[in-house]
Specification:
Blueprint (H helix, E strand, L loop, with lengths): L16 H14 L1 H11 L5 H8 L3 H11 L13 H8 L1 H12 L12 H15 L7 H11 L1 H9 L1 H10 L3 H12 L3 H11 L4 H9 L9 H14 L8 H4 L6 H23 L1
Length: 276
């Protein structure tokens, strides 16, 4: 008998979207505090006092919120000394994002593709830095950039060997999304939008995830531009695409150099704050 072949991109796995989405509920059961934080942050009654009370039951998550609030990104280094103030500084949306990161095991690098967090934090900071050029709030763009890659984690959890091979083979974000659809029938970005919708995230946060591959869509332009900046910073073989095209004319090449420098400087600190 011929020995079993090693995992290959030519062999499509059985991918059950309903089962993958169902696994999100299992994740929530394993991290009840993070699940409560996500639910509270989605509530119209959300308050910094209640969120800080909930966070207090998860020392690791609370520590990350404190660390992020004191990071250079918020300009409050060393001045945030209480958890309630930290929640106010970073905002409810960021607290919700950090709890979602914890829920989906995104904070465990051993369960993710190699260099996942380098790509993830670079994408988040690129989106945040570029946000004012698209009339978006930097804090909201940071959350969008951080969560955009959640689908990557879900696909990797479902098919570790196969997705790791796909990740290393297709370094371009566009090529990777094409390969994901061919292998799983859904891209990681689309899977992210489905998962966030299931968790009650606002519709405004989901639209860019579904529009990023439409070069004519302004709704996807910020995230598309952030992916282009991320490719230039994290992929030595990245084939540059004109920033004017991906940004729907909001950016010129002369705008990109200072963004590259800032994101390169701040990415490591953001990664340290998020992972503890």
């Amino acid at each position: 008998m011929t020995p079993s072949a090693a995992p290959s991109l030519t062999v499509a796995p059985v991918f059950d979207l309903e089962r993958v989405l169902g696994s999100i509920d299992s994740m929530a059961a394993q991290r009840p505090v993070a699940a409560q934080v996500v639910a509270e942050a989605n509530s119209d009654r959300a308050s910094a006092k209640e969120l800080s009370r909930l966070l207090g039951a998860d020392v690791a998550l609370a520590g990350r919120v404190m660390k992020l609030a004191n990071s250079a990104f918020y300009g409050m280094r060393g001045r945030v000394t209480s958890l309630q103030f930290a929640v106010t500084v970073v905002g409810f949306g960021t607290v919700r994002t950090m709890a979602t990161v914890a829920l989906t095991d995104l904070d465990d690098e051993s369960l993710l593709p190699e260099d996942f967090w380098e790509v993830c934090t670079t994408l988040a900071l690129a989106a945040s830095t570029l946000a004012p050029r698209f009339a978006e709030r930097p804090q909201d763009a940071l959350c969008l950039g951080l969560l955009a890659q959640m689908g990557v984690a879900l696909l990797h959890h479902n098919d570790p060997a196969g997705y790791a091979e796909l990740w290393s083979t297709h370094r371009s974000a566009v090529a990777r999304r094409t390969a994901e659809v061919q292998r799983y029938g859904i891209s990681a970005l689309r899977l992210t939008s489905v998962a966030l919708e299931q968790w009650g995230f606002p519709a405004g946060m989901l639209v860019p995830l579904t529009q990023v591959d439409d070069d004519a869509s302004f709704s996807g332009a910020l995230l598309r531009s952030a992916f282009e900046v991320t490719g230039r910073l994290t992929d030595g073989d990245h084939a540059e695409t004109a920033i004017e095209r991906v940004s729907c004319g909001q950016l010129r090449e002369r705008d990109v150099a200072p963004v590259l420098a800032q994101v390169r400087t701040d990415a490591e600190e953001l990664r340290a704050a998020l992972l503890g």
